[in-house]
Design goal:
four-stranded mixed beta sheet; alpha/beta; about 400 residues; 12 helices
Length: about 400
């Protein structure tokens, strides 16, 4: 479906945000590995979560995870460590282009039986579960995806413990910290010192976990408050001391002049001063929080603020090649962002003629669709094609925009 979106001049809205799919994914794997079921509340309900749940319930057959990268990586490690399981893990065409060799190589060091069904180094994978050889040291690259390390970490206690050495620069380190925090919550004393993540052998302790609201989803509303500064937006369920690295978005916005107030019930109320409209340059290293890049790039262009963002190398292997897609799609709005290889992006007021009725193709990427929907604040009537892609992480996004007085029209 394609949506034409028109923004109001200002809005007043309280948004009930979805739960964190990153925390949900880790908790679901731990629950599957626990001898006694855990009690998980506020579980994220989105396409990624459903793909992981279905894959965890399988012992035989094919699990098609679609575009869910977390499910692909976590299920690979999970099934490799389950004797008697015989599964094929496949996904979308884009998933078949996303590398998984570092994780497969590491699991093979532990004795895993994993075969590539089509192309070496990429899904689909045929996995025959075995008793893996833990209790020693293993190495894995840290500069491709933190999910490779997290996948190994989650199964480590059940295979006899592991010391995992991260080779090279570590990307998205807050997600590894998140995995450690969740494992500790369920009774495993994981630690990270230098380039070694140490995880003892043990059993997960079935506990209760009320899953946090998603800071990645909150980022679109923080940006919207800046773009419509006379609005009054409040967000529910966020934790100021969150396990999620994307909570850094609030810090970015406070540096731009946003005031944020928490009430005793955890409601975050936003207020934006006009300082967001100044032309001061923004510089940020997003190595730990690359998922914020689409939101920040879109917002800063719309605000007319030059910027340089670094630490973006992992965006090339997301649901789309995000920097390439952002460059092409945001040019339809008249902004010419400059890519610095795979690592960085900058913009210093370079423009072109915008399309009179821009049609944004998100390239099956939920974060591209949601970030560029914000452009309706400057480009009324912008069209987001294949708008259903937001179901991957935030199924209620369009409904929430509508409740915030955006006009959402379904067009052919």
């Amino acid at each position: 479906m394609n949506y034409r979106i028109t923004a109001p001049p200002a809005t007043e809205a309280t948004i009930v945000l979805p739960a964190s799919k990153s925390i949900t994914a880790r908790a679901l794997v731990i629950d599957a590995l626990s001898k006694t079921p855990c009690t998980l509340t506020n579980v994220a309900m989105c396409d990624d979560t459903h793909a992981l749940m279905q894959g965890l319930d399988m012992k035989q057959g094919t699990a098609n995870v679609g575009a869910a990268g977390t499910a692909m990586r976590f299920l690979t490690a999970f099934h490799a460590a389950q004797p008697g399981h015989d599964v094929m893990i496949d996904g979308s065409e884009r998933m078949r282009e996303r590398p998984i060799a570092p994780l497969v190589d590491a699991l093979r060091q532990l004795g895993a039986h994993i075969e590539y069904s089509h192309h070496e180094g990429f899904p689909p994978l045929h996995i025959v579960g075995k008793t893996l050889r833990g209790g020693g040291h293993i190495s894995i690259r840290g500069d491709v995806s933190s999910q490779f390390a997290s996948a190994l970490m989650l199964i480590a206690p059940t295979v006899g413990g592991l010391d995992i050495r991260l080779e090279g620069e570590v990307v998205s380190a807050p997600y590894i910290d998140m995995t450690i925090a969740i494992m500790r919550h369920f009774g495993i004393s994981a630690s990270w010192q230098g380039d070694i993540i140490a995880i003892p052998a043990g059993e997960y302790i079935a506990s209760r976990l009320d899953i946090e609201t998603d800071w990645s989803a909150a980022s679109y509303w923080l940006a919207l408050q800046a773009l419509l500064p006379h609005s009054r937006i409040s967000l529910t369920g966020l934790q100021p001391d969150s396990w999620q690295g994307d909570s850094r978005m609030l810090t970015f916005m406070q540096q731009m002049g946003m005031r944020a107030q928490w009430d005793e019930d955890g409601l975050l109320s936003l207020d934006m001063s006009q300082t967001a409209c100044c032309c001061c340059s923004t510089f940020a290293d997003l190595n730990g929080t690359p998922d914020l890049a689409p939101t920040l790039i879109t917002m800063l262009c719309l605000l007319g603020r030059p910027f340089r963002l670094t630490g973006l190398r992992t965006l090339a292997i997301k649901e789309s090649d995000r920097l390439e897609v952002l460059r092409d799609e945001i040019a339809k709005l008249g902004y010419l962002i400059q890519l610095e290889g795979r690592e960085a992006v900058n913009w210093h007021f370079e423009t072109c003629d915008p399309q009179p009725e821009p049609h944004i193709n998100p390239h099956n990427d939920h974060r591209i669709a949601m970030a560029l929907a914000l452009a309706a604040t400057r480009h009324p009537g912008i069209i987001i094609e294949h708008a259903e892609v937001v179901k991957k992480s935030y199924p209620m996004f369009w409904q929430d925009l509508s409740n915030a007085n955006f006009l959402i029209e379904n067009i052919l």
